[in-house]
Amino acid sequence: MHYYHVEIFLVAIDAILTGLNHRFSETSSELLVCMACFNPRKSFSNFDVDKLVRLAEIYSENFDIGELTVLPTELKSFVNRARRTPDLLGYNELGKVAEIMVKTNMNTSYRLVYRLIELTLILPVATASVERIFSAMSIINTDLRSKMGDEWLNDLMICYNEKEIFRKIGNEQIKKRFEEMKNRHCFFR
Questions:
Q1: In this structure, are 146 and 77 located in the same domain?
Q2: Cα–Cα distance for residue pair 28/135, rounded to 1 Å
Q3: 65 in the same domain as 18
Q4: How many angstroms separate the CA atoms of 141 and 147, rounded?
Q5: pTM: predicted TM-score of the whole model, two decimal places
Q6: Using one digit for the tens of pLDDT, what is the confidence trace for 55-97?
């Protein structure tokens, strides 16, 4: 049992942890921990004012010094009200909380909290999109294509990233569109 625990299990955990540390920087990890404090499950049981203020500090372009001083009070007031508001209880998704805040006009009463929730909801989508685009760029911009212009690279990137849409377009539609173009560039002669 000792062998499996020390030689196999702990080595595997160390390898996974090393991979995660290599993949995610300290700031990224801190962002994820801070964002988790907004989890509405179990009446905001993970709610931590200090970590949420830290999250706002990381987004320093979106919060000025005065707002950062008011934020802890607004966060405490918000969570107390959220725990007493039947509309907000029972939801497991932060997006639903934001939706209800808008419907009940809480987004104006707690505008800093709402802004922080918006940033928390946007970050994973923005990060994933950027990573996907850089990954696509490394596939498209090979050594053979390294001298192509920005416009051509942009067109290829759009086609690659939106390939689900482009798969639905038939060859006949493409030919017809090309024939209707006034200024077309002919690459093959």
A1: no
A2: 19
A3: yes
A4: 9
A5: 0.58
A6: 899 888 889 999 999 999 999 999 998 888 887 777 788 888 8
